[in-house]
Amino acid sequence: MPRPPIDILALLALPASGKSELRKFLASMDAETRLRDFGIGLPLDLDDYPYVHFMGRVDEELAKQGSRPLFFLGRDRPLQDSITWNVLIELLNEDYKRLFGDTTRQLDPELNPVRRLLNRMDNARERLGMHLLYSLVPSWDTLSRGLHEEAQKHFTAFDEVIASPKEAATVVMEFARGGPPGSPFPIIPPRGYASALQTLNPAILERVRILYVKVTPEQARQKNIERGRPSEQGSILFHSVPAEVMLTDYGCDDIEWLLQQSDRPNTIRVERVVQEGDRYVVKVYYVPVAIFDNRDDLTSFVRGAKEDWSIENVRTLHDGLAAAMTPLLIH
Are 38 and 325 in contact (CB under 8 A)? Predict the structure, then answer.
């Protein structure tokens, strides 16, 4: 009897470490092999990068109007407000709920897609006590004209994920978090994985398992340069993170430190405030973690066309990933 698939797999790592290449690799194989060797069902992808890219595009369009940016300090600069890292987690929480039919926050589908997407961001910001962006947009008509096509593509792509069969599926959730180089641990929230995991919806924390793709920060910076294509900044495989952001936000991360702090081996202990009846309590979740060591770069070849993948590269990646995933399959 085949094993049941992992419910939710969180792919975590510094940018350009190989997360998106692993997603492409898993999606490329037949369902039987993927489930047997990796415990992964039909992949249902959730990723916070498309939101980051859209935020940057909003700022670009505002600059054309002579207006100040809403999200970043400037072109190729870090975020204005680091709490935005947790806004992105709130958006993933909402995506997860929508994936399984929760429409409590469904926005009017007739609304302009740019307004719909920015309203979603404002809803997430409001839940975190942040100021709203709605009144800061100088010209909705101009912004909507410049971004209509990109925003519509976002909703169309997500509608396709929602329409996918949910039986024997695995939600594959990708995001990257970190902190400045040499940061003392714990990394000060809202940076770092500790803060991100504490923001995840309890329904996700109850089911999620983490695959951490390990590279050094120096390797991540080099791979980030190598993969970047200026014309494909919206692509998960070929975008590049600005150099300043790689240094200030991804100079290190805290996954291995969090593993060392846990009182259960091969897990991260997450303390999350949850509502029980009419009160709030702290609930502890133990999230299983496996590490895929990609310091020898087993994944970059996947960016190319599948017909160009060598048998040796495919076998090496397959075997290495299968071995890394083993701890997650026995939980």
Answer: yes
* Residue pLDDT, tens place only, 124-144: 999 999 989 888 888 888 899
Query: What's the whole-number mean pLDDT along residues 107-117?
Result: 78
Place of tokens 């259960």: 264
Name the DSSP letter for residue 131: P
Only one residue has tokens 């300043």, namely 244
Q: How far apart are CA 194 and CA 290, in angstroms?
A: 16
Cβ neighbour number for residue 317 with a 10 Å cutoff: 21
Radius of gyration in angstroms for the set of CA atoms belonging to the chain, rounded to a whole number: 20
Give the whole-angstrom CA distance, residue 116 versus residue 122. Answer: 10
Return the bridge partners of 270, or none.
Answer: 285
Cβ contact 292:255 at 8 Å: no
Q: Whole-model pTM?
A: 0.93
Give start and end residues of each alpha helix (H) in the chain: 19-28, 31-38, 49-64, 84-99, 113-127, 140-162, 192-199, 202-205, 217-227, 243-248, 255-261, 311-329
Q: Cα 219 vs. chain centroid, distance in angstroms?
A: 20
> Do β-strands 267-276 and 279-293 pair in parallel, antiparallel, or remain unpaired?
antiparallel
Compute the 3-state secondary structure of the chain and give helix, strand, coil in percent, each to the nearest 5: 45, 15, 35
pLDDT at 238 over 70: no
Q: What is the 3-state secondary structure (H, E, C) of 27-41?
A: HHCCHHHHHHHHCCC
Q: Please, are residues 199 and 278 in contact by the beta-carbon 8 Å criterion?
A: no
Instruction: Tell me the residue type at 179.
Output: G
Q: How many CA atoms lie within 13 A of 5 on its CB side?
A: 20
Handedness of CA 249, 187, 89, 326 (dihedral sign): positive
Single-letter code of the amino acid located at 28: S
Q: Is the peptide bond before 202 cis (omega within 30 degrees of 0)?
A: no
If you ran DSSP here, which 8-state letter would residue 1 be given? Answer: -
Amino acid at 56: G
Give the separation between CA 244 and CA 13, rounded to whole angstroms.
Answer: 18
Residue 53's closest CA among 9, 19, 26, 91?
91
